[in-house]
């Protein structure tokens, strides 16, 4: 079972995460933890939650990075990360028990918890840190793509998407079939230049990330009428060259 | 990676045990009766003890038998099969030698080959991980096999061969360190390839996802101070190769031989600790691990 499907599935269910719109609120983290604690599988535990060294298992975590572009000020990019349901999933093939598997029908990567021996090798094999051993149940936990929501006819249709997607107030997480070039998510990826994380690892992730858009500049180019800072022209510096004492000092220092 | 004592015990002890079984299977030295019995006991205590130690690492050791199912794809599963096969074949060979004074040569040879396959399979568990560039190279199986062979030769009292193997392994270890220190950067894993944001050196972690530690940071983002590494490498090599070789070159007596074995085993533990502690996992890039390529850029 821990061999990958011989043919990549036609259906590739996954997420598209928009790094431009994510505001770093961690709402998806909480929604994910809630849904996956109350529903399928071992609950996601917290240990020493109010103590000095709290730890817990999460299927989705938000990093924040500071990016300094070639020109212009640094910007903060919030970076949600959950399992990318890789097509060439190294976490699946290393598993000795068959607990980890990739579904033939839609490409979702899951763990059968009652077969897992908690060896942790699959977490070592994942480049993205998408698998965590539950500190209480001692079985491997990972994003299920909310497989118990997306096909669940007991839920209203609007809720038949992953909990993180449903909850995101910024609309930064999109869910759909990335194997279908005509799906909304595939079109979004094509339009916005979606990319793979760590492509050099050869995992062929299904989940895609959309790059942050370039930020508006305070002072636009001369001939650009998209100038957003209308007061800027009135604030142009009046004296480019220092005069008087500072002018003299400047020149004197220059000569040294 | 976190240098878990159970895994270090497992790889060192089982390496020594299967190394010794390799030489016993080849009739080096030719043994019979009680001598054979005690040699086999030492080998089995080491090999089986190592395997048992590895189960302490498991969250659910009671399900360990399930790990025999996936030999088609998983090296961990293959390692299980190889070790059981070796222990059965060498047990049959040893039983015949000890109790019936019959040495079936081909059976011993089969056991010797299986011993090496077992050590090789153990090393492949680590070698297969592209996420740990330091391990993901043929150097890893070569090092595990050489270590097991030198330890085995030493335990089997093959003095000349042990000297040659100890020196060879020591030299190979230095080469593996030299190459391993550069591999992470050479593979091009950077925080920019990890996040897809900007050029190397211009992306840095601003805030981690949580203020405490988590399973990932404990298990995979383990770092050893550089100055400690240099010292530990010297200590490890000294105990593993240099001191045993010097002792073996002295006029032989059993105490000196015991000293050589103890020093070698202590050195093997230091080197194996470094093997794990120094291995950098790419997930560290998401957690603000220093980015070697980025600093160079
Ligand atoms: S993101 Fe990690 S856990 Fe998920 S499929 Fe890829 S390798 Fe496996
Ligand atoms: S921790 Fe569980 S799922 Fe992961 S490799 Fe081990 S047995 Fe398989
Ligand atoms: S798809 Fe479900 S399990 Fe996966 S990160 Fe989102 S909420 Fe969590």
From TrEMBL, chain A:
<keyword id="KW-0004">4Fe-4S</keyword>
<keyword id="KW-0411">Iron-sulfur</keyword>
<dbReference type="Pfam" id="PF13247">
    <property type="entry name" value="Fer4_11"/>
</dbReference>
<keyword id="KW-0479">Metal-binding</keyword>
<dbReference type="Pfam" id="PF12797">
    <property type="entry name" value="Fer4_2"/>
</dbReference>
<dbReference type="InterPro" id="IPR017896">
    <property type="entry name" value="4Fe4S_Fe-S-bd"/>
</dbReference>
<dbReference type="InterPro" id="IPR050954">
    <property type="entry name" value="ET_IronSulfur_Cluster-Binding"/>
</dbReference>
<keyword id="KW-0408">Iron</keyword>
<dbReference type="GO" id="GO:0051539">
    <property type="term" value="F:4 iron, 4 sulfur cluster binding"/>
</dbReference>
<protein>
    <submittedName>
        <fullName>(Fe-S)-binding protein</fullName>
    </submittedName>
</protein>
<dbReference type="GO" id="GO:0046872">
    <property type="term" value="F:metal ion binding"/>
</dbReference>
<dbReference type="InterPro" id="IPR017900">
    <property type="entry name" value="4Fe4S_Fe_S_CS"/>
</dbReference>
From TrEMBL, chain B:
<dbReference type="GO" id="GO:0019645">
    <property type="term" value="P:anaerobic electron transport chain"/>
</dbReference>
<dbReference type="Pfam" id="PF04976">
    <property type="entry name" value="DmsC"/>
</dbReference>
<dbReference type="GO" id="GO:0009389">
    <property type="term" value="F:dimethyl sulfoxide reductase activity"/>
</dbReference>
<dbReference type="GO" id="GO:0009390">
    <property type="term" value="C:dimethyl sulfoxide reductase complex"/>
</dbReference>
<dbReference type="InterPro" id="IPR007059">
    <property type="entry name" value="DmsC"/>
</dbReference>
<dbReference type="GO" id="GO:0005886">
    <property type="term" value="C:plasma membrane"/>
</dbReference>
<protein>
    <submittedName>
        <fullName>Dibenzothiophene desulfurase</fullName>
    </submittedName>
</protein>
